[in-house]
Amino acid sequence: METQMKFGFKDKKRIFSVIIAVILMGLSLSFLIRLNFGTDPCSAMNLGISRHLHLSFGTWLVLFNFILFILVILFDRSQIGWGTLANMLLVGYSADFFRWLFDFILPDNAFTALSIRIVVLIPSLLIFVLAAAVYMAVDLGSAPYDALSFIIASKLKKIPFRIIRIAWDMTACLIGFLLGSTIGIVTVLIAFLLGPVIAWVKEKINRFL
After folding, report:
1. Cα(120)–Cα(1) distance, integer angstroms
2. pTM of the model
3. Least CB-packed of 75, 121, 131, 151 within 10 Å?
4. CB-CB neighbours of 181 under 10 Å
5. Alpha carbon separation from 89 to 72, 82, 83, 129, 138 (Å, rounded)
């Protein structure tokens, strides 16, 4: 952890990229929540939990990440970096802030029409996937939710990582669904798009950085 932190201070471009990426994830997530086509599995689960605990999404996400963060420290500190902290602290509160801002600016029926919801969905989904890919591609640590899937895979070496990750995400989806979150087309698209986009972004961003 200490090595990654020191490296992070020296690499300002990567830190700046991570901060912008996680804020954009929060921005796009604020729209995805309003559009009600589903979100990524982790957000779907945490939206359901936060509603039942009567906490804001951002506050619960910090608490949830802190719990998982302790487990990551115990089992594999190499997964932790500046990107881990940025994701833990900024995604949820950014989503809360932008939801508050757009609720204040936009009328209540702004996303009632299906055509408008679809038009807004496309850029929101693209921004979320690209921002998530940038955050992962700069290699400054994983979010605790993602890090635990890597740790589990390292312990269960006979099982392919993609199977473990699918089971991990499906568990999150099931919890979210049982707690009243929408599991929709966006959830499926993120599951299929994120991997290839990460590989493409990583190739591009390495040239820039």
Report:
1. 39
2. 0.83
3. 75
4. 25
5. 16, 11, 10, 19, 18
Any residues with CB less than 8 A from the CB of 51 and at least 6 apart, and which?
Answer: 179, 180
Distance CA 203, CA 176 (A): 33
If one counts the domains in the chain, the total is: 1
**What is the distance between the alpha carbons of residues 68 and 6, in angstroms, rounded to a whole number?**
23
Reading the block at residue 98, the tokens are 């932008």
Backbone phi and psi for residue 183, each to the nearest 5 degrees, phi listed first: -110, 105
Question: Are the beta carbons of 8 and 15 closer than 8 angstroms?
Answer: yes
Measure the CA–CA gap between 131 and 202, rounded to whole angstroms: 12
pLDDT at 3 exceeding the cut of 50: no
- Please give the backbone phi and psi of residue 106, each rounded to the nearest 5 degrees, phi first: -90, 150
Query: What residue numbers bound the domain in which 79 lies?
Result: 2-208
The three state secondary structure string of 73-105 is HHHCHHHCCHHHHHHHHHHHHHHHHHHHHHHHH
pLDDT digits (tens, 9 = 90+) for 112-129: 888 899 999 999 988 988
